[in-house]
Write a structure and sequence with these properties.
Elements: H1 12-23, E1 30-31, H2 33-40, H3 44-57, E2 60-63, E3 66-69, H4 74-84, H5 86-101, E4 104-111, E5 114-121, E6 136-138, H6 143-150, H7 154-161, H8 177-190, E7 193-196, E8 203-211, E9 217-226, H9 232-259
Length: 270
Amino acid sequence: MARADAGPDFIEALARGLDVIRAFRPREPVMSLAAVAGETGLARPTARRMLLTLANLGYVRAVDGGFELTARVLDLGMTYVLSRSLWEVARPHMEALVAQTHESSSIAQLDGSDIIYVARVAVPKIVALVVTIGTRFPAMQTSLGKVLLAALPLEEAERVLAEPSRSGITPRYQPDAAHRAAELRDVRARGWSLTDEELAPGIRSIAAPLRDGSGRVIASLNVNTHAAETPVERLTGEYLPLLLHAASAISADWAAYQSAPQVTAPVARS
């Protein structure tokens, strides 16, 4: 069925293909044809053609029990990350931050009511939740997400949070609207955020905003620790100044990158 709000230039087949990719849920790597059809609302023959087309392009593959995504799907997200060059700008600062704290650091952006990780420098530690590029978590229960939500007008933040999470995670902390508003006001006022085992047991982190040359928040940067190893006092007293310095340096470098002339190499003519 065509989307009611689609314009004359809307390509329904492309939208359906993306719906099929998004149908694959966290921690459920293999889906049957019937499950994909049910998740997307497509007729089974249509879902089958979509899956076979995506398989031909290398984005899914047929396995026992149905279909699964391939690693090539990551190209879609990495194209976005690399096209913005934020990773190249941030990487040396993140590596220095990790060397100073001996803790993992990540960058995330807002996607609906979730955050999605777009860059990460990790240290080998056992944590409750595995994080890789493309991982998504509910925004309000993460330090990264609180920073991003605090950058929005309160009404817009509430509208965003009303969207269902696609993370597959049920967080421990479930604040009501009044508590959300108070927390986001505090984050906005002090310029950084803290979460203490709100998403899952053992996860404690701080985050700060990354800004472009106009001062707009474009992403957030964190230091993530294990609650059993790192008390809040060390996180805020020792690691926070290092995090704020790194975030400021990344923001300055990003602003400089944006303002620099972008030179395109000439095409060689034969």
